Amino acid sequence: MSEKKLFIQTLGCAMNVRDSEHIVAELSQKENYTLTEDIKEADLILINTCSVREKPVHKLFSEIGAFEKIKKNGAKIGVCGCTASHLGDEIFKRAPYVDFVLGARNVSKITKAVKTPKFIGTDIDYDESEFTFADFRNNPYKTYINISIGCDKHCTYCIVPYTRGDEISIPFDIIFKETLKAVQKGAKEVFLLGQNVNNYGKKFRNNHKKIDFSDLLEELSTIEGLERIRFTSPHPLHMDDKFLQVFANNPKICKSIHMPLQSGSDNILKAMKRGYDKKWYLNRAFKIRELCPDVSISTDIIVAFPGESDKDFEETMDVLEQVRFEQLFSFKYSKRPLTKAASMPNQIPEDIASSRLTTLQNRHNEILDEIVLKQKNKEVKVLFEELRANGAVAGRTDNNFLVQIQGSEEFLGKLKRVKITDVKRMVLHGEII
Ligand code: SAH
Ligand code: SF4
Ligand code: F3S
């Protein structure tokens, strides 16, 4: 089989990044494709899309148009991922030169898709929880492992349940074997992925051994050679005491946790259907800080959800003041098709949304400047995972601060003690000790 070139662009969350790895693995091992970063020499161009907010979806069609103009003669274009799931054959209508459409949760059909004219696979009930994909990883030291697919939470703003279908847990044996294999190939850190990781084990495709997320963490931590375990996203609602104890006491679990808040207002949390209130959220955040004094807490916040008043927004600002997040991902509410919130009254005007986002981000930047200043002169342990420009190499501390030192390949995949000598908002600089 002659060698073919694959160009792949990945947008969206870690689940899409992992899906792209599976796509590359399947195509390289079964169809003899190799990766290229030069779109002009590609025989196959793939765009793995995200639908969670409106802007990237708009951009998709202008991007496909641009790719069509520069691609080499006979090259194919495929649209994959979450936008493929919810737009389906509308993509063919709006961009007739697209060769196939492959939704999230249909990744295992990629080899068929490339060989079938106008293939479309967008079934959100399709079950890939036990599919054995071929193996490929962008980064051998830090490896993504899926532990569940889909989400049934149906938060009223969110399109994900309509692009990735209902939640199904991947059997423990598959996760364990995949982790073991990654560690044998040099991984020091695994990143467990799912939309609600701490709801793991509620529903399997077949009758599998019953196991919850806390037990999964404990079992994986027995793997020799595995140094660090991270996971995303846990849901604040499922942060019970058992989970917090395991999180705090297992030394292989990194003391960094994502606690997606979305809003600090009880009215808005209810309208979002998040299942917790401000009091529960603060209680969990304080408990985590009490159990693990060095923990980093990151969060996602949406401003200007329909009906959000100034008072509601102040409640969000209040949580920001109280928890003092080490990392914030913040977004203006974006109206998404199929979701309940899209038809709610009192959609918030753009100028108010922008001003709230700026207020939130400015205050968070001030908090962050204070937080990073405290890191100066600290001695930390860094797992180096990425080469940077100008002879630098970067990695993360256990509690997820990005640290950069002068150095090269010899540090990759190694855990080293570093003294922090200088701090910037997004990156700490240090020296090996
Ligand atoms: N399962 C994760 C979220 C995945 S989506 C969780 O429950 O936390 C990632 C983030 O995108 C969400 O946490 C939310 O903050 C944001 N998001 C989702 N839908 C959105 C929308 N319609 N408008 C703006 N932000 C949105
Ligand atoms: Fe979306 Fe809510 Fe599911 Fe997260 S938990 S993916 S925000 S529906
Ligand atoms: Fe985007 Fe799909 Fe992830 S919508 S955030 S790529 S689950």
From TrEMBL:
Database matches in NCBIfam families: miaB-methiolase (TIGR01574), MiaB/RimO family radical SAM methylthiotransferase (TIGR00089)
Localization per record: Cytoplasm
Protein name (record): tRNA-2-methylthio-N(6)-dimethylallyladenosine synthase
Protein species of origin: Campylobacter novaezeelandiae
Gene name tied to this protein: miaB
First-listed, main subcellular location of the protein, grouped into a coarse class: cytoplasm
UniProt cofactor(s): [4Fe-4S] cluster
Pfam families listed in its UniProt record: Radical_SAM, TRAM, UPF0004
Co-factor: note: Binds 2 [4Fe-4S] clusters. One cluster is coordinated with 3 cysteines and an exchangeable S-adenosyl-L-methionine.
Single GO term (MF): metal ion binding
Assigned GO CC terms: cytosol
Function: Catalyzes the methylthiolation of N6-(dimethylallyl)adenosine (i(6)A), leading to the formation of 2-methylthio-N6-(dimethylallyl)adenosine (ms(2)i(6)A) at position 37 in tRNAs that read codons beginning with uridine.
